[in-house]
Every structure is written in C-alpha cells, then in structure tokens.
Amino acid sequence: MTLKTLWYLNLADGDYPWIENGLYPVDFDRYRRLAETIDKGGFYGALVATWPNDPLASASFVASYTKQMRFLVAVYARMTPPKLLAQQALTFDAFTGGRLLLNLINGRDNIMQTYGVSTSHDDRYVLGEAYWREFHEHYRAGNPTNFPNTPLVIAPTKTDGIPLWGAGDSAAGLAHAGKVIDVYLTMMRGLDRIRGQFDTARASARLQGRQFADLGALASVVVRPTRAEAERHFYAMFERTGAEAIRAKLDEAVHRRTWGQHSLATFEAPDERRRGWVRSLLAGRLPALEELRLERRLFAGITAWSPLDIFDTGSSAVYFVGDPEDVADNIKAYHDEAGLSALILAAWPLIDEAETVSRLLLPRLAEIPTSG
C-alpha cells in the first residue's frame, strides 16, 4: 500500500480566496471540473467539507463524473437520524462502487447552535458513540423496500461498514476517537508534536482493544520544480494579502477566541516565534520567509479557512514548501518516524494546484510504502 493522499473538494476557491476579490463565485461547473481533476490526477480521494454547501449532496452531484476517487464526506453526528444516514450511505456506495468515507465532525458550539444543537462540546462526543454504533448496524443490515410487491434490497458494499475518519485533540475527542474512529486525523504540526499526538491517539484506541487503520494529517502544500520557485510562490500569498489584511483577520480571531477579552495588540502568543509575527504585523510589516519556517520544509501560511496560526493550536495553514524531493522527503520523515499514512492537502487555486501536485509530488509519494 502507498500513502493515502487526498485533496480538497471545496467551493472556497480562488487565487487567494481569503482576500477581497480573491474568492471565486459559486460555480458548480468548476466544482465538477475540480472533482474530475482529482479523480484523473491519481489522488486517493477528496475531503468534501461543510462550506457552505451540503457535503453529501455535493459529493453525490459530482460522483457520476468520476471513476475511482473516494469521497470523504463531512458529517455531524445526530444531525440526521442514523437509519436515514445509513440509507444515504448505502445508496451512495451502491451507485459509486463503495467510494464513500465519512469524516466525523464534532463542530464548534457557535456553529452547532445555528442548527438548534445546544449540547456541550464534550457531550456531543459521548452521545456520538451510540449514534455511530447504530449507524453501522443499519448500514450492515442493508435497506429493504417498504413495498412488498417489489422486494428490492440495497445491500452494503463494504462488509466492515463505512470507514469513519475524524480528529479529536481534547480528552473527550481522544476517547471518542479510540472507541469510534478508523482513521485518526489531526492538523499538521512539527514532527515531534505529530509523533506525540499519534502516540496519544494510539493509546486511546488500545484501551478499547482497537487500532487505527491509518493515521493522517491535514496540511497545505506548495510544490514547484525548484525550491526557489516554491518559496517565491508561497511567500506571494503574504505579499498579495498584505500586513494590514492579515492583522485585521487575526484581530478578529483573537477577539473571537478570547470572548472579546483581547485584541491582537494585547494578545500574548505562546512562543517567541509567534510573538515575532505579531510584533511585525502590529508594526505594519510582514514576517520574513525564514521567520515563517517551523522546521525543515514546513512553513506557517494562510488558507481559505485558517489565518496565520499565532495560537499554535494546530492549523491546516501549515505548508510543505519546496521541490518534489524536498516535500516528499519531509513527508516520508512523518511516515517513518510518526506513522503517518494519510494526508489531506490543499493549495489554491484548487484545480491548478491539484494538477501541479499530481504531476510533481504524487509520483514521489507513491514511493513511500505503508503497511495499511
């Protein structure tokens, strides 16, 4: 087996979708072309996230235009009755040859409240355990017709049920992962942090007599034929965004995360590197490229859904940057030293960068053997 490398199937697209005039308008034809690009490019699959379209409906829309990619569809536990979700999963799998994966989302309190869900963060994890057990039972049972004159049954495509992917860094999240999840995910960090996170997750699964099928991370990537080209393209996101816009986004993030207690000017970042970023931005300057390096070819950046990570709480806005050998070697170190066997990547524009990653990086990643 080789490393499972997925891309993002997302409407948050554009040259720099986090800045004014950098976000493409909603275009379902482009969404279809993105799915076709991922499929033909040799990716294992794509993460279909909640942004702002319904993920399962979106995956169903484009699935018929693809032949082999898997769809990792984001799902909130208990939002849909488990029997109905099982029926939807059975139908999707039957029509696609078993290409559905589910990404379990616990959700932030402010988002869940918009759906009328007031259960606390930790309680959602606990209640989710029973939900996913019931979902599996309904999926494995298949779904027969309610009409006796037409005795049809949609049988499960996968005898072991739908693979459940998901994260969980908190104590409640790790306990949930150990009991429920098949593929454990976390946000990309430095190698030592990832190794420690994976070790903690493995221990949680062992307590339940289980082990994960894969361990994965979400990250971003800029790969070019040469290291210099990759670094120029990566740093261009900062130059195009500008210090003022980055500062404004971070000020909003600090205000939200501290419940209005702090602004960027009063926020104390957790380490000297990040405090340096904040000082530069408050002075109207961009951090230099080298100041953004986290380790080796790993740099702190910006994505459509994450600002520069001054909080050090884990972020998909962490980029592998370099030539194909640089990036593949860095990813191989995560595999060899931490056990990474799945990777969900993004870069913008999504179609253009998927083509680049498919051409330059995927052949190198295919050389990394895994035991999964």
UniProtKB/TrEMBL annotation:
Residue span(s) of domain Luciferase-like: 26-336
Gene3D superfamilies for the chain: Luciferase-like domain
Pfam family, one: Bac_luciferase
This protein's UniProt keywords: Flavoprotein, FMN, Monooxygenase, Oxidoreductase
Gene Ontology BP, a term: alkanesulfonate catabolic process
rRNA processing as UniProt keyword: no
One GO molecular-function entry: alkanesulfonate monooxygenase activity
InterPro entries, per database record: Luciferase-like_dom (IPR011251), Luciferase-like_sf (IPR036661), SsuD_RutA_monooxygenase (IPR050172)
Membrane-traversing stretches: none
The name this protein goes by in its record: Luciferase-like domain-containing protein
Species, as recorded: Mesorhizobium plurifarium
Lineage of source species: Bacteria, Pseudomonadati, Pseudomonadota, Alphaproteobacteria, Hyphomicrobiales
